[in-house]
Amino acid sequence: MIHYFKKAEEGKKTFLLLHGTGGDEMDLVPLANMVDKGNGILSIRGAVSENGMNRFFRRIAEGIFDEDDIRQRAGEISDFILEASEKYGFNPNDLIALGYSNGANMIAAMLLLKGGIFRQAILHHPMVPLSQVGDINLEGTSVFIGAGTNDPIVTGENSQRLYELLKGNGADAVISWFDKGHSLTKEEVLASREWLLSQT
């Protein structure tokens, strides 16, 4: 997979970064550095192209996902994380997953498909990625959700449903609301930073 890697400082963890639709592996690097510049970074470019825009899985229409493709791509990313951890020498169990929009949806899907894959996750403007979810155990997993009160892509009801789905399966989840639509603002990034600091 096309990716960017930065080694963590001594004693620090590593971010897994998954960008939004049309982004690439460098998009969220400044954001990750704002949250904790000492952490390492494994940032992956989405392998699906939609009209020339990078994504992490196919969709049938706006807000309607190809769920078989989600499952396949989630498995591929999981495998790549293990390969990268061996190549670069980081602990895959200590990854902090951070995603925006399409990337946040993929991280949410990975949590719902393989409970415990990430102990900490920061999801900016995600939505419920799967219509059917099996029994999962998310105890020991902490999740920050940044949602928009007036997001034109993700309804407040959908954001709340994802929060309740994660929390209902054992995750220590919090949801913070912002009024800037689907945009990822400095205010939201700083809120996620405060949340992450509270976890350690």
Automatic annotation (TrEMBL):
GO terms for molecular function: hydrolase activity. Residues 87-187 form the Dienelactone hydrolase domain. It holds the Pfam family DLH. It comes from the Bacteria. Signal peptide: none annotated. This is Carboxylesterase. The lineage of its organism: Bacteria, Bacillati, Bacillota, Clostridia, Eubacteriales.
